[in-house]
Amino acid sequence: MNSTTQHVLKGSLSVIILRLLEERDRMYGYEITQQVKALTAGEMMITEGALYPALHKLEAEGLLTATTELVDGRARKYYSLTRDGQQQAVGRVSELRAFVEHLNTILNLKPAI
């Protein structure tokens, strides 16, 4: 993945997290990274260094709630959308889709001769 892709991914990370949690109800951090990797056939990879600050920010904004459970003797933190997070997920996904459509329109312009 090149640096431009990484930069765009970072800017879209909160929307990606909200959308995955909207779809899956609850997930833990590593599961989110693996889901993105699987859905994009390895083309997009989220580092833990980018993911956890984004999760903590969304939690601080009241969009996520976290619960810790013991799994195989280790603590695992699961994230879920709050009611406000569910509403924000719908809105932010719609905004990003509209942006991508406009971007596609611009990128598909024929060069002036």
TrEMBL record:
It comes from the Bacteria. Pfam families: PadR. Residues 17-88 form the Transcription regulator PadR N-terminal domain. PANTHER family: PADR-FAMILY TRANSCRIPTIONAL REGULATOR, TRANSCRIPTIONAL REGULATOR RV3488. This is Transcriptional regulator, PadR-like family.
